[in-house]
Amino acid sequence: MVLHDLLDGSLVLRRVYRDGQLFERETTQLEHGCLSCTVRLDVVPTAERLASCGFDHVVLGLPPGVAAGMAVTELRRGLSRPAVIDNAVLALDPVDLDDHIWDRHTLFESGFTSMPTDERTSGEFLIGEFGQVDTVMVHPGLGAVLTGDPREGSAQWLLGVELLGQLASHAGVVGAADEYRPGCFDDAEAAARNRPGVVRVPVIEAEGSFRTVLHRAGRPLHPGRFREALPQLAAGTHWLRGRLWIASAPKTRIAVQGIGPRVWLESTGKWLADSAEPGHAHPGKTGADVDSVLDWHPSHGDRGTVLAITGRSEDIDAREFRDLLDSCQLTQAEMKQDFGVWDDPLELSDAL
């Protein structure tokens, strides 16, 4: 097992354990102490060196704030021979999950990384990691261990595990002593889950303290009405995500994401149905994602709004959410107008 930590001053601390015993402890000074440099210049070379010494199985513990997806990419690119990644595992104290989602501080401000320029919040980091990993290991955090807090199995613990089931419904949830499913990491599945605008929800909607609501709108959204509705759509939700078909930018697939207190929109390019490449505008062609295949419509192709929200059951009214999103759609009369007539209150034309 190899554990890496990125310390202040661009210093990387590497510890290698074998059979539970520390047999290597080294520090490396990096010229640029960013997270990607740590992976490329220390994590990957260490994995390469251990493999060349005959260690066929290695567990890599990444520095806090390093995205598993970035590490996978660098390992694929940097190792001299192909490597099989069996599992991507995130260790988490479920008691702290709710606070992490709503924390406004950056990873640097919270002390998770030594990079002042890292503007991600802990909630943004965790949501990205939930999409990337196949397993979440629940374990009391360091503070709880040091203070002897018996939180495992408590009401707060179980509540956090329930929230985890809504945010990472695909992932196996295990304790430190539990058996887990080996060999279930899938690059393509992880990439599909993390593509902006993609929506994944729990297969079964069970009664509980948290819930996820999904809704689709088949007509373009009125930009003004949607701008007014967005704060209400996102209010009180732990995670809002989806893709938007907005009348002021009708050919652009716009991803929306809200994690705790932050909400943002981003362009992901043209809809597949608006692709300029002849013969490309149907879901059977290379490059079409799973959502476009499943949601393809005979008349408007993959265009459409798909939005999901996850939050406390007491804060989410499914009917109110769906009615509010439906009210943002263009009316039949508005559909007859040219798309160029719509104002751009979201400033999409400038941003895109």
TrEMBL record:
Domain CobW C-terminal: 210-329
Domain of life of the native organism: Bacteria
Cross-referenced SMART domains: CobW_C
Protein name: Cobalamin synthesis protein cobW C-terminal domain
Organism: Paenarthrobacter aurescens (strain TC1)
